[in-house]
Amino acid sequence: MILLYSFFEADESGNILIEKNAKTAEVYYYYYDAKNRLTDIVHRYSYQKNLFTEYSFEYNEAGQLAKMITSEKEGAYYFTWRYDYEDGLRLNERCYSKEGRIMGSVEYKYK
What we know:
This protein is an all-beta fold. The protein has a single domain (6-107), classed as Lipocalin. The chain has strands spanning 6-10, 16-21, 27-32, 38-44, 51-59, 65-72, 77-86, 89-96, 102-107. Strands 1-2-3-4-5-6-7-8-9 form a 9-stranded antiparallel β-sheet, with no helix packed on it. The protein is globular, with a radius of gyration of 17 Å. The N and C termini lie far apart (45 Å).
């Protein structure tokens, strides 16, 4: 038996706008830019009235993901991921702490 606990609402373009978890009563809101690219995922916990941005996305001129911020502990801590590209291919991604320290990185080599 498969139990589904999340319900989704979409806009006329098919973009998910709201995700509601029937089991926990938590709600996620999804935001998009004028080009229908996901820009933010915001979370409301069932036990609080405040909204917390869990994910934030920025894109470069070519439309590729350039930066992603992920938050933890209801926004008290976050990580920033930065992505670099060359000729349309991702060269690297780096993760930085809230304090700006590099936490890790991935380098890509193509053949």
